[in-house]
Structure formats: C-alpha cells, structure tokens
Amino acid sequence: MTHFSSLWLRRTRGWVAAGLVGVIAVAACSHDGGGGSDVPTPTPPTAAPTPYALALPSNFPAGPLLPADNPLTVEGVDLGRHLFYEKTLSVDNSISCASCHRQALAFTDGLAHAVGVNGARHPRSAMSLSNLLWDPLLTWDGSDKGLEAQARTPLTNAVEMHQTLAASVAKLQAQPAYVARFAKAFGPGAPTEDNMLKALAQFVRTLVSGNSRYDRYRRGDRSVLSADEVRGLQLFITHPTGTALGRGGNCADCHAGDLQTNHDFVNNGLDRTFTDLGRAVPTGLPSDQGKFRIPSLRNIALTGPYMHDGRFATLEDVLAHYNEHIEYGSPNLDANILNGTNSPLGIGQPLGLTDTEKKQIVLFLKTLTDSTFIQDPRFSQPTD
Amino acid sequence: MKLPVRAWALLLPLVALAAGCKKDADPATAATGSVALDLTHVVGTAPLAFDGTSYTKADGQTFQVTKFKYLLSNVELLRADGTAYAAPESYYLVDAAKTATLHLVVPGVPLANYTGLRFVVGVDAARNTAGAQTGALDPNNDLYWDWTTGYVFLKMEGTSPQAPHAAAAAAGGLRFHVGDNGTQRTISFAGAPLAVTATQAPTLHLRVNVLALFDNAGAPSKNIDFSKLSDVMGGASAPLLADNYAAGLFTLERVATN
Predict the structure, then answer these.
(1) Which of B7, B52, B147 sits opposite A12 (nearest CB)?
(2) In terms of domains, do A268 and A324 share one?
(3) What UniProt keywords apply to this chain's record, in alphabetical order (chain B) (predicted)?
(4) What is the pLDDT of residues B151-194, one digit of tens each?
(5) So what's the pLDDT on residue A7?
(6) Measuring CA to CA, which of A229, B151, B160, B197 is 20 to 30 A from B65?
(7) Is A251 flagged in the annotation as binding?
C-alpha cells in the first residue's frame, strides 16, 4: 500500500498504451524500488493533495526538472493558476502575471518591452512560458535557478508587479477563498511566501506545449508538413558547409531538439557594444557580456517582437539578422555564428541563405504553433 | 486516482530521480561494490576555465574555450586473465563546466581485484543510431545532432584569433563536434590495480587535457592548425580529432583506494 502523506515523493515515468503521450506520475516513495511494477492507485488520506498527472509528448526528452520538495498536485496547480491571474499580487492591484503572459500569445504580451505597474517600462521583453520544466536557468540572463526562485522576480521587481512577498501574502490571507486553496494544496496553516512561489511554479510547470504540426510530424505523421516546410526543417537542423549539399540555416546547434533550445547562453551578434550586459549581469564575467538565454522557439509565430529587447518585429527580420546583419565585431560572439556560412568562400562570409531558403525556414517556424496550447482551458483565467 | 501507466523504467532505467527516498536494501547487490572516475580538466598546465582565459598551443596559436562536453561509455574493468567485467548501461555525460558531471560512479561492480579499466569516448554504434534515449543519452543534453545522425561524442567550442574569421571579428570560431560511427575511441588504463571490496571503492583520478585535441606529441603530423581547421561537424576531419584525444586527452594521475 502506497500512501501520499509523505512530502518526499518520487516519480515514475510511463506511457499510456497509445504510446503518444507520456505521463509523469507523481507517486509517493514505495517499495517497488523503481523496478517497474504498475503504479499503485491508492486512496489518498482525507485532505492530502492529489498528485497531478502531467502528460508529456512522447517526442519530448525524458528527465524534466521536477523538484522533490514541490511535487505537482492538482490542488497546488489550481492554486497556482488562480495566483497567476491574481491582480492583488501587484502593488496597485492593476496587473497579474497574465497581464504580460497572455495565453493567446503563448504567454507573451506582443510588446517589445514588458509594462509593469504605473506604466513602468521593462528593459527586456516578456518571455514565452512553455516547456519550462526542462530549463535549469530562467529569464533572459539566467538569474533565476528554478521556477520557484523565478516567481519571486516579477512579483517584487519595481518595473513589474512591485510588491513584497509579505504584502502579497497579507492580501491573500484576507481572502477566505485563497486561505482555503492554500490549505487544500499545502495543508493546514496560513498562506506563506514559500507556498505562494511553489504554487506559481507548479502551474507554470504544467504549461506544456507539444501538439504543434511539427510535433505531429515528429511523432510519425508525415502528411502534416508541406514540402516547403520540410525543406525549412532540413535547413533549420543543418550546419552549412559551403557546399550545395550542406546548405543550412545553422539554427539547431542552439535551438536544439524538440524543445528548440540547448539551455545555453550566447551572444548572437546583435550589437558591437552592449546596453544590456545579459548573462554578465548575474555572473559579472566580461566573457558573458552580451550573452542571453537561448529561448525555445515553441509558438514563435505568436511571440513577437523578437530578441531580449524586442527589436525585430517579424520572423523575416530575425532571419535577415542571422543571414545578413551579424555584428562580427561584437565581443563574445558565439562560435557557431562566427563559423556558420553557406558561402563556398568559407568561414568569414555571412550565412548566405537565399530568399527562398529564408522563406522556407520561416514556414517551418510557423509549424511550431500549437493552437491546442493557446486554447487549453486548463491554462486560462479561472472562473471560480 | 487511477493512473493508466506502466513504468517506463522497465525499458530505460532512470537516473537521479529517487532524491529524498531511502533506497531499500537489495540482497542481490550485496556482493558488489563500485568504482569511480574523478575528472579534472586542464589545458596544458592551467585549469580549464570558461571565463575568457587564453591558452596557447605548441605552435603558438592561442584560443579560448566556451564549451567542452563529451560522452563516456562502456566502462570495463580488466581482470588479470585478460577478461573484463563490462558495466551494463554505463553511459555518462561530462560537461567540464558542470561540477556535478565530473565524478562518475560505476555501481554494481562484482568484488574482485582488477588490473585496470577502460572506457569509450563516444557511444557504441548500436546505441548511437538507436534514436533518442534517456539519462546521459537524453537528446536534451546538447550532444545530439538530430534523430537521423545520432550523437555528438565530443564537443569543443571556443575562439581563436588564428582561425579564419570575418574582417570585423577579432577571432574566428572553433567548433569541433566529433561524432559518427568510426570515431569512437577506447581509452585504457591497463596497469592500474583496482581492489573492489566490501570496504574499498577505488577512485581513478584522471587529468583531462583539452590541449591534447590539438597537440599530438606522439604524431605531430596530426597537430591541428586553426588557420586550416577550425570547424568540424563529424565528417572527414573528425577521426583526426578522435585520434588526438585517444592519444592524450586522459592521464591517470592516481588511484585512491577509497
């Protein structure tokens, strides 16, 4: 008999019989030793939270980052969803997380610079939220390790929601519905700062986008992409070698795999001098200046304008940057960009994609749009 | 709640997921011990750093390192009679920038006096082309080309002023991604007595010298001149890099008995 009363939980990964959707089952420590017996189906003790079964696409990598001290529960995720849409978490009760992370735009805001309380202009662009449970370091510069720590930043930052965690908790304690939701998710006792951050992290972990046409292609349905889109995919994943056979967009060294990121930080040649030091802000290293997180390209057609400062309005502008406008004098420019060229003249020449090839890559990028994700009622503003 | 799942662990063992759980004693493992590899990365005599430190090759060319990662697999413990114990599912991802990946433990080793150890840099051919896998072979680890070509066995990235570059750039990129079947290389330490007992779990302390990728003292014709070779993505030049790292990347500094 397995029970769920322990906070120390272990996870078992499995697939449904169809083989298309994996499930992360959050189960308590049991005596099967991970040897693979069927996951038990116990009756939880009264008032203990219910493990949340997170469905993962079969083409996604294993090993998502699920911290042992904050297991996903139905009640925790529900609380996190309410908090995500809760405007009293801002100093003047005017904005919530969802103000800058709108579901219809894959949890971005459509702006070059995010806008906080009192119209404050953020120096950076709001990042899309999806598939973040694989990302060890968050935000554009990797300041925050893990989603629990990350949740603190927008809540308290002066150009975002600008409210202390203590003030947020006090406001929540004054709302009986929240007191009840905290108790369901985390047990008896008043709402706490830690549990508020944990609940927000839980909700954001459930934002899994894996039902784009690209994903369906990867899971075996070859009919969902057009010939031009497939050519775009081939270019996307190919290192250019300066020959007709090796033509490529040089994209997938960084935007690697089904998550379209290798989770690294690089300088992609935007500027010769930096107004935003990027990764060097938290590390202090000159060699990190101008480096920013390599974002996933999930739903990229919905998440413009692009780059950390939203300088490019369209995907065509982005392709033009990589193809024609790399600032080669930029310090710490990434080796993959320094060396990427389709020119028979070799390294030192620009990327050199044709107009048709650029269009094909943009067509491929649009196959990463997941219309299920942006309409999923589990992620929308709660009505209760 | 009902979970319509069967545990994947049957097919693909998971690692590092049991945090916080007490492992039940397993009688079947009582007669086994473990061996560990401890990796220290250097460039020549200097520690490997990713902070813009400049290093110099034997020919005077200079370079900086931004990334150094590789896959180490198929660990075998050698016996005096010429046979070996092959550790099952021994696949490890080493990222020189991540301390947690620099101490590799090989569990479940039958207790015995071994005479040495060997491992492969890369992934065996069968697993290299078996598609995306888990653990060290998770394609999310930045060492996977794509689902048609398999794994990158070793990835070194950096810059060098001597590498070809655009006029406006101060340096060219170094992009050495070694892979494809045929570039797996076996590293052997034959004369390293390893007593694995109920109370002794030996650790091999290995020095990993990145300079050996480019300077091959035993075969100078294989030295890498960055002005001629600065970008390798598998292909014709990858075996050259593989020969170099087979020859000199790893040095056994000492064996700690416990």
Answers:
(1) B7
(2) yes
(3) Signal
(4) 999 999 999 999 999 999 999 999 999 998 999 999 999 989 99
(5) 26
(6) B151
(7) yes
Out of A16, A69, A335, name the one closest to residue B66 (CB). A335
* CATH number, residue A193: 1.10.760.10
Torsion sign over Cα A135, A141, A146, A151: negative
Q: Exposed, middle or buried, B100 (CB in 10 Å: 0-12/13-18/19+)?
A: exposed
Say yes or no: B1 contacts chain A, CB-CB below 8 A. yes
Least confident of A243-257, A299-313, B1-15, B211-225: B1-15
Which of B22, B24, B173 is closest, CB to CB, to A339?
B173
CB contact under 8 A, A252 and B146: yes
Burial class (CB in 10 A: 0-12, 13-18, 19+), B236: exposed
Select from A156, A171, A205 the last residue of a domain.
Answer: A205
Q: Using CA atoms, how far apart are residues B162 and B174, in angstroms rounded to an integer? A: 10
Distance from CA of A291 to the nearest CA of B (A): 12
Q: Which residue has the higher pLDDT, B13 or A204?
A: A204
- In the three-class reduction of DSSP (H, G, I as helix; E, B as strand; rest coil), residue A43 is classed as coil
| pTM of the predicted structure, to 2 decimals | 0.86
pLDDT digits (tens, 9 = 90+) for A50-88: 999 999 999 898 778 789 999 999 999 999 999 999 999
Contacts of A62 (CB under 8 A, 6+ apart): A13, B8, B12, B14, B134, B135, B138, B140
**What pLDDT score was predicted for residue A18?**
28
A220 part of contact set with chain B, CB < 8 Å = no
- A203 touching chain B per CB within 8 A: no
Residue A217 and residue A286 in one domain: yes
Domain that holds residue A364: 213-368
Other C-beta atoms closer than 10 Å to the C-beta of A38 total 13
Q: Give the C-alpha separation, B173 to B226, whole Å.
A: 10
CB contact under 8 A, B6 and A15: yes
At residue A36, does pLDDT exceed 80? no
The CA distance from B196 to B94, in Å, is 24
Report the percent of chain A where pLDDT is more than 70. Answer: 88
Q: Is A29 one of the annotated binding-site residues? A: no
Q: Is A50 left (phi over 0), alpha (psi -120 to 50) or beta?
A: beta
Residue A20 burial by CB count (10 A; 0-12/13-18/19+): exposed, middle or buried? Answer: middle
Q: Which of B1, B52, B174 sits opposite A335 (nearest CB)?
A: B174
Are B52 and A329 a contacting pair at CB < 8 A? no
How close does chain B come to A336, measured CA to CA in Å? 7
Q: Evaluate whether A25 touches A14 at the Cβ level (below 8 Å).
A: yes
Map residue A57 onto helix, strand or coil: strand
Query: Quick check: B218 contacting A, CB < 8 Å?
Result: no
Q: Give chain B positions within 8 Å (CB) of A9.
A: 20
Contact flag A11-B17 (C-beta cutoff 8 Å): yes
The pLDDT assigned to B148 comes to 63
- A259 and A360 fall within a common domain: yes
Inter-CA distances, A265 with A166, A238, A255, A351, Å: 33, 21, 11, 21
A173 and A278 within one domain:
no
